[in-house]
Specification:
The complex is a heterodimer. By secondary structure, chain A is mostly helical. Helix content of chain A is 74%, strand content 0%. Chain A is globular. Chain B is of the alpha+beta class. Chain B folds into 3 domains: 45 residues, no CATH class; 62 residues, no CATH class; 103 residues, no CATH class. Chain B has 5 helices and 8 strands. Classes of the chains: A mainly alpha, B alpha+beta. Chains A and B meet through helix 2, helix 3, helix 6, helix 7 and helix 9 of A and helix 1, helix 3, helix 4 and strand 3 of B.
Chain lengths: 189, 252
């Protein structure tokens, strides 16, 4: 997601933790799409997914004092809450509600397996970090990831020297990895 | 041999090169390089699957309203921690009462009051000098920055069919600003400009679309008149309003 007009995460985190209403709004604008994507992947139907998004942001607001920037990013923290809320929603659905509507809705689209949903979390974290990389590093990685170009082809397309392309690839991947290790599923967030 | 060359390891992880006999032997023996390669491969694989995640659909305004209603409900654990109300200057009179807060007249009165207060802050800053300015600026940015109107921006032409945006009119305590966030816009031939429009003959150029907030000129600060926010595609050198791409109407 583009970050037009966005403050740095640090600034938003500070205002959020101090209870500024507008910070929750900004958090929703910045990460609502990612949370909705995860919830949809986990729950399978849009109505349940929206409920999970709502529960996630309300819980984040109520538990804002518990967010520790040194342990991970705001997005990683929100994704952790969303995963737990999604698990709650799946349990509730399985436990009681056997109404026709619920059964019908559930059968429309089966929730993806947990491992697949975990991968969704990891990808959301990686794409968020990708968007934060310096523009040249990001461009080089996007050409490698999405267009499947070799480093020679990337050098030809961008006009960067080969050595620069290789170092952008190496440093960019290292940044993505560092963020993934902090905020990804394996971190236990 | 020493560990794998980091650049080579990256190219192997990306699948661009295969390890030669020497590298393969080393990987067999060296757990550190094996782990490094496995982790880099996994990150590269995650990265390859992120293309469709870059432009996720923005959740609805209705969902935000549900969140806000629950999170900011008075008497709940989440409520109570509100944005502090603006500090009232001495001698500015009684603020608008409840009976005046509803209709357009009430809103106008509120804005007049707001300007009076801003003027008071400006005067105070002049009187207090440099040190005073610092304090007032901090007060203004911490306590009085607030959104006074907002709009969802929707495509005004087929060329922007996949684009969406949102704009907030923000009172910074030192003037009004437009803060925009836009997704899915096509790469412009020239650049994108932001306008405030009265719906009739007057369009005011507020600046070019980018990450920074845009200052709203005083002549365009009357919300009852300049309610439409328009983002246009402009050719380089084009003075007049170009092709409308996104539009929305500010509401309070």
């Amino acid at each position: 997601m583009p970050r037009l007009g966005a403050d740095s995460d640090d600034d938003l985190a500070g205002r959020f933790r101090s209870g500024e209403d507008r910070a929750l709004r900004e958090l929703y604008q910045r990460y609502g799409a990612a949370i909705l994507h995860l919830a949809t992947a986990k729950l399978g139907n849009p109505a349940d997914a929206q409920d999970v998004v709502q529960a996630t942001f309300v819980a984040a607001w109520q538990g804002r004092a518990g967010y520790a920037p040194e342990r991970g990013s705001l997005l990683g923290w929100l994704l952790g809450i969303a995963r737990r809320k999604a698990v709650d929603a799946i349990r509730n659905r399985a436990r009681g509600d056997r109404s026709t509507e619920s059964v019908r809705r559930t059968s429309l689209a089966e929730p993806v397996q947990d491992t697949a949903a975990d991968q969704v979390v990891d990808r959301l974290v990686v794409v968020d970090e990708l968007a934060r990389l310096p523009a040249d590093q990001r461009r080089v990685l996007e050409l490698a990831f999405y267009d499947n170009l070799t480093h020679h082809q990337i050098a030809a397309v961008t006009g960067f020297p080969l050595g620069t392309v290789k170092s952008h690839l190496r440093r960019g991947l290292a940044r993505l990895r560092g963020r993934w290790e902090v905020d990804g599923v394996a971190s236990g967030s | 041999m020493s560990h794998l060359d980091p650049d080579l390891l990256v190219l192997i992880a990306l699948g661009e090169q295969t390890p030669g006999p020497v590298e393969a032997d080393h990987l067999q023996d060296c757990a550190a390089c094996r782990d490094e390669l496995a982790a880099t491969r996994e990150v590269a694989d995650l990265g390859r699957h992120t293309e469709e995640l870059r432009e996720l659909p923005v959740p609805s305004e209705a969902l935000w309203q549900r969140i806000a209603a629950q999170a900011f409900a008075p008497g709940t654990a989440g409520g109570g921690a509100r944005v502090p109300a603006p500090v009232r200057p001495p001698g500015a009179g009684t603020p608008a009462g409840p009976s005046r807060s509803g209709g357009p007249a009430g809103r106008r009165a509120g804005r007049r009051y707001g300007r009076l207060w801003l003027a008071a802050v400006a005067v105070a800053a002049l009187v207090l000098g440099v040190a005073g300015t610092v304090v007032v600026t901090r007060l203004a940015t911490k306590d009085t920055t607030r959104v006074i109107a907002s709009a969802e921006l929707t495509p005004a032409t087929a060329a922007a069919a996949g684009a969406r945006g949102r704009v907030e009119l923000v009172d910074t305590g030192q003037g009004l600003q437009l803060r925009l966030s836009v997704t899915g816009m096509p790469t412009p031939v020239g650049y994108y400009a932001v306008w405030l429009y009265d719906g009739d003959k007057n369009m005011i150029d507020v600046g070019s679309l980018g990450p920074a907030p845009l200052n709203v000129p005083t002549v365009a600060q009357d919300l009852d008149v300049f309610r439409i926010v328009d983002i246009s595609a402009q050719r380089v050198g084009q003075q007049e309003h170009g092709q409308s791409m996104l539009r929305g109407t500010l509401t309070q």
